[in-house]
Amino acid sequence: MAEHTSSSIMIEAAPADVMGVIADFARYPDWTGEVKEAEVLKSDDQGRAEQVRLVMDAGAIKDDQVLGYTWTGANEVSWTLVKSQMLRSLDGSYILKPAGAGSTEVTYQLTVDVKIPMLGMIKRKAEKVIIDRALAGLKKRVESGK
């Protein structure tokens, strides 16, 4: 099993509000930094995204990718790579846990495998940067109420 990188953050909002921002793919370019375009290609019968095309620009890695999403209850979403130019695989998840007083602990896990050779240590560092930026952006977006 591939190693994954994981990090958590506390957000001063209810899990439903946090998940609302996570599920709003059209707004990702507003807060994620790396996502330049996002387009929902397919939705389930509850209106949740099942496949999303993302145009990414993370410095050294620029990619046009399609991710498949799986929603587990109201507080967990995971994704896996459907197609990509630069990546061999990409698996991730957001897991939300109510933390009392209207707060939510958000844990983001990510495993990335690029098609170009890259040392494991460098790959983990890149995963950590992506996770930390995404969590900081999510926190700012949710807490600002925009």
Automatic annotation (TrEMBL):
SUPFAM superfamilies: Bet v1-like (SSF55961). Pfam families: Polyketide_cyc (PF03364). CDD domains: SRPBCC_2. Residues 11-138 form the Coenzyme Q-binding protein COQ10 START domain. InterPro entries: COQ10_START, START-like_dom_sf. It comes from the Bacteria. This is SRPBCC family protein.
